[in-house]
Structure formats: C-alpha cells, structure tokens
Amino acid sequence: MRFVLGIDIGGTNLVVGSVAEDGSSIVATASEPTQAEAGTKDVLERLVGLAERTIAATRRESPDAEILGVGVGAPGPLDTRRGIVLLTPNLGWVNLPLRQIIHDRLGLAAALDNDANCAVLGEWWVGAARGARQAIGITIGTGIGGGLILDGKLYHGASDVAGEIGHTTIDTEGRRCKCGNYGCLEAYASGPNIALRAVEEIEAGAVSRLPSLVNGDLRRITAQTVYQAAQDGDELALEVVNDTAKFLGVGIGNLLNVFNPEVVVVCGGVTAAGDHLFVPLRREVARRAFKPAVAACRIVPGALAGTAGVYGAAKAFLDQTARA
Amino acid sequence: MRFVLGIDIGGTNLVVGSVAEDGSSIVATASEPTQAEAGTKDVLERLVGLAERTIAATRRESPDAEILGVGVGAPGPLDTRRGIVLLTPNLGWVNLPLRQIIHDRLGLAAALDNDANCAVLGEWWVGAARGARQAIGITIGTGIGGGLILDGKLYHGASDVAGEIGHTTIDTEGRRCKCGNYGCLEAYASGPNIALRAVEEIEAGAVSRLPSLVNGDLRRITAQTVYQAAQDGDELALEVVNDTAKFLGVGIGNLLNVFNPEVVVVCGGVTAAGDHLFVPLRREVARRAFKPAVAACRIVPGALAGTAGVYGAAKAFLDQTARA
Fold this sequence. Notes:
Chain A is built from eleven helices and 13 strands. Chain A has 324 residues and is α/β, with parallel strands linked by helices. Chains A and B meet through β10, α8 and α10 of A and β10, α8 and α10 of B.
C-alpha cells in the first residue's frame, strides 16, 4: 500500500499522520505540543522525530508500505512555489526553507502549503466539502483563516495570500484587530475574541455563570468555556454565541455574494457550539446574501476535527506532485 | 476577416459593436437609449435593429467579413448555461430566453453572460487587466457589479451569482441598500448613493457650490456633478469623493485579502474623479490589506470606457463556443 505523510504545524500542536494515497484512512499518527518558545531548531527536531515515529508505525501496520512523500501545512505567509515559510509570528520563523529541510531530514519528496489551505483541502478531499466544485473553508481558532476550492482546485492567488477571510472588514470603524486594521471578522469571532466579548460584558455588569466556571478568574474564560455555558443555558453565553453567529454570518454572506460556492465548511473549536451557532449563522447569511447564492450553498461544520490539516497536507503533496 | 457581434444591454443604453476575432478593434458600432418603459418587445425589436445595422456596417467596411456569432451581456441574475435572463428589475424581464431569441432573430450562434462579467472580461481581454492570471473588475454605475478572472478564466460560481461585489457588507449596521441588506458597499459608493451622500450633507447645512451647478434643484445632483465640483476644488465634493474612496478601499481591501489578485480594474463614471478617487483609494487598501497582497496588486481605472461590455460580450461568445 502507498501512503503520504501529512504534517500539520499549529501554534499549539504538531500533528503527523500517515494517510492512505486514496484518502481512505490515516494508519498511524503522532502529535505533541508545539512549544514554539523552545526555538526553531528544537521544534524542527521534534517534528522530524514525530515523522520518523509515524513512518515506523506505518511500516509495522503495513510491512510493504511505500511512503510517497510528505506534505507540510504551516502557518503563513508562505512562498509555496519555493517551499519557504516567509513569516510566522506565532512560531517566530522568518524565511525558513521548510520544504528543503523536511526533504533533507526525511529523505522524502516534500510539498508545503498554508495550514488553513490544508484544512480546507482535507475537508474537500474526504470530509464535509467532498465533491464540491466550489467550496470555501473557514478555520476558527486563535485566528481566523480560510481557503478556497474554485472550479475543483485549491486557489492560491497571485502571491499565496488568498483566503485570508479573517481579515475582511465587516465594520469599517469596528474593533481593532491584531493585524492593525479595524473591524476585521477575526476581531469579533476568533476564539480569543469570543472570550473577550464575554469578559467585556461581565465587566460591564452582565449576570452569568461564566465567572463561577473559572473560579472568578475572568482571564481563564476561553471560547470553549463560553460554548459550555451556552449549552448549559447561560443567557450571556448564549448571547455571545448568537452575536458570533451574526458576525460570521456577515463574513460568510459576503463570500456567498462574491464566490457563490456550493458549500462553506466551518472548522475549529467553534463548531462545539453546535446549533446555537449554526442556526442563527445560517439565518444571518440568508438575510444578507442573494437568494440564488443562498439556495446553492450548504453551511456545515467540518467533518474531520483534528485531522483535516493532516489529510489536506497529504493531498497538497499529491496535487503538487501531479502538477510538477 | 472574422468578427463577433458584442451586445451590451444596459439600463440606460443598448450598445452593439462588431469586434474583430482577435480583439484588435471594433469596426462598427450602434447604440441607442434602452427605454425599458417601452416594454420588453419594443426593447428587443430595437436591439435586433441595432444588431442588423451593425452587421450591415461591418460588411460595408469589410466586404468578405464573416460574422461568427453574437455575445450578449445582460443584467442578471442569469442562467448562462441555459441562456436565460432570470430577472432584471431595471428592465422588467423575467425568465426571458434571450440567447434563443437573439439566435432566432439574427440567425447567428449566440452566447449570454452577465453584463458586469462581460465588462471585466473585456478589460481582461484587451484593456487594463490584459494578461493577468487573477483579475477583479468592479463596475460602478447605478449599482455596483463585478466579475472575477481566476487562474485565467472568468469565474461564474455554483449558480452564476459570483462577483456581486456591490453587495458585500462593509458595515454590519450601516446604510440600507436597495437589495434589502444593510451596509452593502453599493449603499455608499454607487453613482446615486455618491450623489445622495452629497445631498444629505447639503441638507444638513454644508457649504458647497454644488447647488449652484443644478440651479438649486438638489434632486438634479448626480455623481458626475460631484466629480465636476471636486475637480473645481469644491470642499464638500472633495470630501464626498474622498469618503467614496475609503468605502471602495474597504471593499477592495477585502477582495485583496481573499483573492490576492494581480489587478483590480475600476470601471464606470466614477473613474472621472481621477486621482481625487484613486490616490485615497489605494491608500485605504494599503492600510487595510496584507502587505504581500497589496504588493502583488495594481488598482487601475478601466481602459475601455463605453466598449468594455461590447468587447467582453464578444469574448464570452468566443470562450463559450471554444468550451462547447
């Protein structure tokens, strides 16, 4: 059997998986915390270790396994053509020739793509967007990223920057974003900003059981705390989730009017909010976007929690190899 | 020589041109006011008349001319595959099989596409976006439309709705738009809304020479009046143009972060404002979008004023024929 190694480099975790060439399964996987503060060399060393362990586990599972190569999904901006990570604020990497490093260390052909692109490519290959000609993925975590499948192909744009959905303005004079801009979607609906909006309301006097879930230490409120409280019926948490749905609805409505996709896949911890999120989100999109665009499009949670990036990195390798 | 007829059906004017197959020139052209209020039958009759006169003029110019077919650009939404205009509020057409009608009346093969798509396709074929792999066009008139050239091809989306840039939200709680939504780019930066913002300021007491340009009848202020006053140094008009640039900058900045195009072409009367518009527009985009996306992209006025739609309709015919 033939496999491709998929590597998903996140700010929080490094994940490696051995993906069957047809996308049918992941036969071996390994992961550990990224710990970027340990430095580039240390992170790369441990990443190579994870990959070697995954290769060994693959051969144990399937003694005649052939490993075709390795796809790497990394935060950007990147130069995918040259295989270079230009800059990753969270990891502190600058102009890192990651594709070459992985190739040299593992002795395998390698490909590099953006982490959000890989997540979307994974969902499109074997997950919630399977079979769509036009698909958009939004990854919601510490930041908000995205990727576009257009006419059945991952779309990179003129200089690999396409898909930065989190940094589209939904409110010209709105909240300040980490990127320096005002009113970006990410400034409202990323994990930390979902938590922040809840904390702001509590500090302004809103009644909620959220403080009791974190022993009164508001800094410990995360988006997950908010979803949990919402599931338990907490009114403030429900309001924060509902507002999140509206903000995402504005951003996704814009994408429907510009791209007219068949499916929008929402990935990340935010999907834990379930119908509390998706019902008002779909309603907001329907209110804002054109009817034919709304009628053409499903808006669904990702189907590959935790592995979309690994599947997608493997698929990115297969696609880049096929093109080359 | 071989020609394709290009037809541009606008809310204000019907324009027909005979386009050389290689896009090098328009050898004959004819146009007249649309006068939609005269009814569908009357408009179609006059449109066929214009086409016949253009064909006759082409044969006079070039006695051995071969007319390959006719491309029609019409307001949408459309079903391009079936050649049907689904609905055009400005013209009052519903489910009109326009491609078949034109084919039957002229005895020529015909193709149909969205008017904004045609304008962008024209600018990409022989105008300001020539040669770009990724290009976005924005047409600013009574409304704001748009079209996308992605990986060297006009992009239609899942159901022909792609490119509705005018109906992307730039302010969640913003101005009411004709489409029913709030805060659409069009609600700020279409021709009528540029004029409306100036009138609102005058009614609120702003000093301006604009009223004197329309003999005190504020209803007669159009976007063109505003550009003219801005060129003459009127402060209110300059402020309105500057605000227009900022609103367009937000919308175009969003497109840069999502599409990462090589060029954005701005078409329509608004380009008459020249540097008063383009300088602050480019500044706003640079302030909002990611540096690599800004660095990759030119933002330029259209080069084919009045004929982009005709060139593009002809090109749409050639492309649809090549695919069939």
